Amino acid sequence: MLKPIPDLRIVGRSRKPEGTIVHVGDVEVGGRKVVVIAGPCSVENADQLGTTARAVQAAGAVILRGGAFKPRTSPYSFRGLKEEGLRLLEEVGRQTHLPVVTEAMDTRHLDAVRAHADMIQIGSRNMQNYTLLEEAGKLDVPILLKRGLSATIEEFLFAAEYIASGGNEQIILCERGIRTFETATRNTLDLSAVPILKKLSHLPVIVDPSHGTGIWWLVPLMARAAIAVGADGLLVEVHPDPEHALSDGDQSLRPDRFAAMMADLEAVARAVGREI
Amino acid sequence: MLKPIPDLRIVGRSRKPEGTIVHVGDVEVGGRKVVVIAGPCSVENADQLGTTARAVQAAGAVILRGGAFKPRTSPYSFRGLKEEGLRLLEEVGRQTHLPVVTEAMDTRHLDAVRAHADMIQIGSRNMQNYTLLEEAGKLDVPILLKRGLSATIEEFLFAAEYIASGGNEQIILCERGIRTFETATRNTLDLSAVPILKKLSHLPVIVDPSHGTGIWWLVPLMARAAIAVGADGLLVEVHPDPEHALSDGDQSLRPDRFAAMMADLEAVARAVGREI
Amino acid sequence: MLKPIPDLRIVGRSRKPEGTIVHVGDVEVGGRKVVVIAGPCSVENADQLGTTARAVQAAGAVILRGGAFKPRTSPYSFRGLKEEGLRLLEEVGRQTHLPVVTEAMDTRHLDAVRAHADMIQIGSRNMQNYTLLEEAGKLDVPILLKRGLSATIEEFLFAAEYIASGGNEQIILCERGIRTFETATRNTLDLSAVPILKKLSHLPVIVDPSHGTGIWWLVPLMARAAIAVGADGLLVEVHPDPEHALSDGDQSLRPDRFAAMMADLEAVARAVGREI
Amino acid sequence: MLKPIPDLRIVGRSRKPEGTIVHVGDVEVGGRKVVVIAGPCSVENADQLGTTARAVQAAGAVILRGGAFKPRTSPYSFRGLKEEGLRLLEEVGRQTHLPVVTEAMDTRHLDAVRAHADMIQIGSRNMQNYTLLEEAGKLDVPILLKRGLSATIEEFLFAAEYIASGGNEQIILCERGIRTFETATRNTLDLSAVPILKKLSHLPVIVDPSHGTGIWWLVPLMARAAIAVGADGLLVEVHPDPEHALSDGDQSLRPDRFAAMMADLEAVARAVGREI
């Protein structure tokens, strides 16, 4: 039924049964502590990013996220502040001492993103952009690899193998919902993927309940479930004013709700032998 | 994004904001206590059923499940002991004082199933068998309604509305995995459906991690997640000898593993303000 | 990749390599001639049914369809004229000398449907209603079996095997679209299923482009494609006034458009060595 | 149900109701003539490519396809001859006077591919690689854009809009199957997408029955259906020795079977008012 995949030569669990710890700045992902990465979908301006960063940090987030290069379905949607967004991220990261993660959409962005960020995200739409995966494999910076919208677990792991085969084994896998017939949610968050990924691979696995549901009030509940099922971390969208967000407002938590969620998650983490 | 569905005249949340408690024998489903329903996929013989029933009861299960009429893809597979299975269920239920639930596949089975069981299950393949739903709506026995393999949440709730419109509001909804492109699991367990169903409807919602994954070692993990996300109960397949089960052995827990799971779930339930 | 399925003991192709001809009244399905079944989604009244029947007959349809028992998502939608609908169908069938097909949703309907109709349809939502399949297998009337909304080709063929294992081998398979993530169409018509079904089984295969798309103007185009790929027939919804239809108006053709489609299909049928 | 999409400012049908003709070398795509593009999945060596090119040309293909950069699920699979493959393609194209199309997987490949090929393919896995789309939009070479594995029709059209918004309107859309629950075929070829794409956009639409099914003997049948439904062309994999192909042998036609298919398709094209 669920057999080991022999061609996962590097990321397969048997090569490193004890599991991998990925270091993002001085944060360890894959250990006993559940790691929360939070921030706005898009970096919009210094004030929005700074406010959000300080709020999520106060509530317990240890890595800051924010999109500078934004993949959007329509070319006429807001597509990110690009280099200016990277600069803001780095600045706010330095002020708060939070490591930052942001997406690179193309091989040509890798150097710029790496210059400003502590971890590079490869997004769902690029999970099978094999050239990008290969180039990311040549870097010495951790990679946050998100599952493709309709990628099987096997394809997802092979995407990680592409990166690893270039020499970079600092990879975090992120389940973020798959595309199904159900339209009540933006995607269907596949939480069973978490223990399966951890069984087949030694890499840490985190969950993105924001994209996984598309609905802000589901985020704290699915975050609970993600921790209960064994996720090593969460990736959560937070915005000081979701109704006026330039992207993904429907799925973004206000800072006060994020703080309430964090308080709530502690008990669940303890119940499964983790801390947060 | 997620709007109330006005035509859910009876099962819609607004009609009963405080939620419904369903009574199965003297067990209450939908209250603070998370209810665990367990037993074999198929009733095979008196010994198998009795052994399983006593084991799951000792571990904390409060309702016994077991299939007498079995929907199977091939007509040449084992299709259940039928009336003999119903008789065994009733007998073991009486011995253990556990209420029993079993599936009716057709309107003509309803009387027989009702005569022997405390709750009638309508399975995934019959979720849109509207004649069966209507007839179930005329009974005064609780109904366990499982989500169809590719039913949207809206279609699922309308199936409950069919039952309710006949006068029977003692309905428990059961999320049991949906059909997606992913083949690592038998189905994709859609845990986000649980809070959505509870928001749109006042009916209790339970989760079947056995069918939802098809893989026994995932069951305790997805059971944790189900409780974390707010499920009112679990439906779990247990078999004394899964390798020789006549159906669904791959997804059945051995009694010792079921007991270990139950012990483990207490902490998660407490963490979210429930007990088990 | 596509292996014979040994447990298809009766409907498997190897048992009858020359293929099966199903007789509906005096119409043969499965021969050189492509058979068109047409009529309204629901029987609404004598006038609507009679008008439609005469129009589709004039355009070349050879079997009349019409729903008397209608499976509807909501219990508050129009659910068919039931026995009165059956009576109207029989009457109009007699007047026009067209054999009629209509759906039975439950084992208890089988006798009534059989008394009035020349072929019994088992709908998508009941494709795995195994009790209904078994009872249909005991009758000596042809069965039109529609593929379930998310049934694999293998499950579809096993549903036919259920019927056949009861002794009734007069079965027509109908591809009618599957549920996918795409929302532009009501379903995704899986035309590759047609040659696969014909390779694995000796039963005739027809296509329902009305449910398969949900969009009236796509029907003639997908009907062309169905014939090109080898379908033995079509099932098409026609209504004299689609905008006021009590069900499925969006996917129903007006009689004049149906006639235009029929004229158009002749050339395609000839191009692939068939006639219509 | 199917509304125009206002933000398709450039590729939307209303902007060019008469439709677009794309010029690939001296071949016109989008006119009355159905255009067949054929060749091996991967360019393997001069002999394999030359043999295939001459065979498909003799049978009526007018554009040569062949992969030099190959996106493969595993990094350990054959991934193409890369620059050497491009060189071979150009050489064989010159010998046969066939324009050639091949895939670019990354912005950095665009110049090299453009130097050797007459049309650049953007593959399914890169359909939402927006940086690649943008760069392709700055070129003056036609683009063959394949639908993503789980892209909606709307997302597919917006990917074309990305290219067009850069100034390049020489775009051919290619339906190549979508990912569904069905496992009998590699993908589910969504032929209803063809007329919908043509209604919403003025761009030519072709169909790839090789990837769309993954099964060689289905290719001629689905090719028939594609022409019947209105496709402007076909993209077909042909290999002189499919059993020893370095990629996708299961779905490749032998040259003799390709020739038989081409002969067969003429009648279907004529039946729908086209030629081939």
In helices, the fraction of residues of chain A equals 25-40%
Largest sheet of chain A: 8 strands, parallel, barrel
What is the count of β-strands of chain A?
10
* β-strand amount of chain A: 5-15%
Spatial strand order of the main sheet of chain A: 3-4-5-6-7-8-9-10
Low-pLDDT stretches of chain A: none
Order of helices and strands of chain A: EEEHEHEHEHEHEHEHHEH
Broad structural category of chain A:
alpha/beta
The quaternary state of the protein chains shown equals homotetramer
Helix run count of chain A: 9
Terminal Cα span of chain A: 33 Å
| Silhouette of chain A | globular
Q: What's the overall average pLDDT of chain A, rounded?
A: 97
User: What is the rounded Rg of chain A?
Assistant: 17 Å
Describe this entry's structure for a reader.
Four copies of one chain form a homotetramer. Chain A has 276 residues and is α/β, with parallel strands linked by helices. The first copy, chain A, has helices at 46-59, 83-96, 110-116, 130-136, 153-165, 193-200, 209-213, 219-229, 255-271; strands spanning 22-24, 27-29, 35-39, 63-65, 100-103, 119-122, 143-146, 171-175, 205-207, 233-237. Helices cover 35% and strands 14% of the residues of chain A. In chain A, the strands form two sheets. Chain A has an eight-stranded parallel β-barrel with strand order 3-4-5-6-7-8-9-10, surrounded by seven helices. The first copy, chain A, has a two-stranded antiparallel ribbon with strand order 1-2. In chain A, helix 4 (130-136) links the parallel strand 6 and strand 7. In chain A, helix 1 packs parallel to helix 2 (83-96), helix 1 packs parallel to helix 9 (255-271) and helix 8 packs parallel to helix 9 (255-271). The two termini of chain A are 33 Å apart. The model of chain A has no long low-confidence stretch (mean pLDDT 97). Chain A binds chain B through residues 1-2, 150, 152-154, 178, 180-185, 188-193, 195-196, 212-215, 217-218, 221-222, 224-230, 250, 267-268, 270-272, and chain B through 1-2, 150, 152-154, 178, 180-185, 188-193, 195-196, 212-215, 217-218, 221-222, 224-230, 250, 267-268, 270-272.
